[in-house]
Design brief:
The protein is built from twelve helices and four strands. The protein is mostly helical.
């Protein structure tokens, strides 16, 4: 859905995507009425994916099978919508800068939802849950930074569609066998949930490193990458030292990286270069301080630990969530001006 005003090249190495579009998306596009706005399809897919996450969060602890099957259906409908919106826009000549900005912005949120659903489905230990749930939005944010620096949107072999199919396998396995049976499976002495989330984390981390290397090869500025790297390291240390609870660490990490990603998108549509985000560095320092307190022997009681968790997650969510919304509105106004030209 690229428009001339936001022209950039795309290198998508996804293994499954060409076949998915050929056999499941393109044959159905003619059935979508031309009057349907592509952005409505984008929004609809996002709502379904968010609904799948909320359903799983509310029912994952219950001894029921149907929620996992329902979530698998919902994420596949979302996946179809996310691949059909662009095709429908091109087929009906409704491409717009606003549509592209919306699609990329919601992709950042949707990738985070999928990562969190994978964590909820597998029920892995806290460290690996935090690692997988946070490194995925981090990889997406760094991809947008690379796009803003180089003008190339890079997508790897293991991407959205591969993630959805892997999640579907996990959801069906959880529905059929249950959490205990999945946790009992080991690979070289390591539980299957840890192996899966470890692979997810390594693949996403590799993507982050490759993005940074490509920016360097294209003589881009590496300074703006300091903030996400520092914050990612801080979240890792916090998770490893149990300085924050699992949910608080996931919320804090995901919200900050969503802000970083939205910030890169907004700067790009405004024709500006990426910046060193000092607020993110401050957040990294605060998390590092919490981890240091724990390492040096600080052991808060349960009530104090819970208060720290709520305070950290709440402050980060309000501060960076508010900043992300403000940057998204800036980007929205910028693409509306582009569409009026």
């Amino acid at each position: 859905m690229t428009t001339p005003a936001l022209k950039y090249s795309v290198q998508d190495r996804s293994i499954l995507l060409p076949y998915y579009k050929r056999f499941l998306v393109e044959p159905l596009l003619p059935f979508i009425p031309a009057r349907v706005n592509p952005n409505a399809i984008t929004h609809g897919g996002h709502v379904l994916n968010l609904g799948a996450l909320l359903l799983l969060a509310l029912t994952a602890h219950m001894d029921k099978r149907w929620p996992f099957i329902a979530v698998a259906v919902l994420v596949h409908v979302y996946l179809w919508c996310d691949n059909a919106d662009g095709g429908h826009a091109r087929r009906t000549n409704q491409c717009s800068a606003k549509g592209e900005f919306l699609d990329h912005g919601l992709d950042l949120l949707n990738a985070t939802y999928v990562a969190c659903m994978t964590v909820l489905t597998l029920g892995a230990p806290p460290f690996w849950s935090v690692a997988a749930a946070v490194v995925v939005p981090a990889a997406a944010a760094v991809t947008y930074w690379e796009q803003a620096e180089t003008g190339v949107f890079q997508l790897g072999l293991f991407n959205q569609i591969e993630s959805i199919f892997a999640l579907s396998v996990a959801l069906v396995a959880r529905a059929v066998f249950g959490a205990e049976a999945i946790a009992a499976v080991t690979v070289l002495g390591v539980s299957l949930p840890v192996v899966v989330l470890g692979v997810v984390s390594v693949v996403a981390l590799f993507g982050i490193v490759r993005s940074t290397m490509r920016v360097a090869q294209n003589r881009g500025r590496l300074g703006p990458a300091i903030a996400p790297y520092a914050f990612g390291a801080a979240v890792t240390v916090v998770a490893a030292t149990d300085a924050l609870g699992t949910i608080a660490a996931i919320v804090a990490g995901a919200v900050v990286f969503i802000f970083i990603g939205i910030r890169q998108l907004t700067l790009r549509v405004r024709g500006e270069r990426p910046l060193l985000e000092r607020g993110v560095l401050l957040a990294a320092a605060v998390l590092g301080g919490l981890a240091g307190y724990r390492v040096l022997g600080g052991t808060p009681n349960a009530a104090m630990a819970q208060s720290i968790d709520w305070a950290a997650a709440g402050v980060v969510s309000v501060a960076f969530g508010g900043l992300a919304l403000a940057r998204a509105l800036e980007g929205h106004r910028a693409v509306e001006r582009l569409d009026r030209r």
